[in-house]
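[Q] Does anyone have a clean structure-token version of this?
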Amino acid sequence: MDEHCNEYVGTVYVLPETRCFELHTTVHGAPATITGTVSQLLASQFSQYVPGAIGTVDPQQVAVRPRRVEVLTRELHERHRAPRKVHLLTRVHDVEEQARPVPVSAI
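[A] Here you go.
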């Protein structure tokens, strides 16, 4: 099993109930669609969304514009089977920065 983490910029669509995502981005200059599951931590932030609450993320606002995301890719090698890749959405950078509280010293 090989495991590596990549950052992509693209439009990400999230289904928080099923913990699935679809990312439309470019890989090596060609358009690509990456699908997979959402990490448990990120899924809890989506499922606990309350308007105006700090530390939660609105899943509908994620797809409004292209985002910088972090995707963990595992390449599985099973005996008598072709290798396959499994993707896990671990982080949405732009949304996390907006969800963090602003320190009082910065105001």
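[Q] Thanks! Anything notable?
[A] Residues 40-47 form the longest helix (8 residues).
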